[in-house]
Amino acid sequence: MKGNELKPRIGVFGRRNYGKSSLVNYLTGQNIAIVSDTPGATTDPVRKTMELGGVGPVIWVDTAGIDDVGELGQARVERSFAELEQCDLAIVLLAENRFDEHEQSLLDACKKTKIPYLLLYSQADKVPPSDVFLDDVQRICGTRPLVFSIYDDSRRDVLLNSILQLLPESAYKHMSLLGDVIHEGDKVVMVTPIDSSAPEGRMILPQVQVLRDILDNNAIALVCKESELVRTLASLAAPPKLVVTDSQVYDYVASVVPDDIFLTSFSVVLARAKGLFDDYVKGTPKLSSLNDDDRILLLESCTHNVTCEDIGRVKLPKLIKKFSGKNIHFDVVSGLSSLERPVSDYALVIQCGGCVVSPKQLASRLAPAVEAGVPVSNYGLAIAYMNGIFERSMRIFNQN
User: Using CA atoms in the order 90, 96, 97, 99, what is the torsion angle rounded to 10 degrees?
Assistant: First the structure.
């Protein structure tokens, strides 16, 4: 029921030839990363999924050396640091009794993005660490490196236990989407349009995630298209506790669902679960003060086939232009692609629901905008705001 990106990510970082690839192979029990005595053997991040006891499936990420040189080498270093922003835990390798600006810059990046890290003195079988070095690192970093060699299997459990202690529970513990607002036996109606943008033969991930969450909370789910909503509501002996709709039919659904029934959207539900809800609520009203030639950035967490009924690339821009009455420019960026212009060039950033990414990945993606003071919003909240049902879409979450 989860997208692949929702698995916790544990990245391995350090200089070239410090044993990053060997460590990933050792931990996964597979030769998935190229091991070579030649510096720079790892050029792009290599990822492998495996089960980690007490956590479940995690993604191990092997990265290029942070001390790579030359123009191409610098690009590899930038890729490694970009990968760091998507990780839930960083394993920072030390070796050869060296700690200087390369390691310090990596730890500074971890602290800036609030990523926990494990200092691991690697290849202790080649060059053992001196007590002076370990003491110096502890003084600088506040933590003592774990001494390790892939040829000393007695240290494997120590390493895995250290990883388990540092990996945030939020990276792997399931958080209920609606568990605090619905109860056993409650009826929840899900409105799921089927148009050219809907995937063939299946539901989209946000709908699947909400459906599973309703069932997990022992509530009753009823699923219908918007064309069947009136009939569905009329068939119920008592009104449902909640109606969750796709954002693109928000206006119609709001006109059909009585005001005393809670109403929200799949995108709003996910926005609340991802931890940036307060930023979205604060930033969404920017839609009322847009100016001619303002530029809006639309962020999509996934890549998908674009149709004439695409919500982010077609319907949302049309709605914003109509609502504002202004000549607005739009840029759309999918996945983790880099921005073509500074984020400060935008009057507003609007993020999709983020069903295929973790809260950490979503927060990292929006952090530059938040830090630059650029208002941020979410597909569902933006559409609700422009349809005059902004407060209503959040009412169920404010009932306590």
Answer: -50
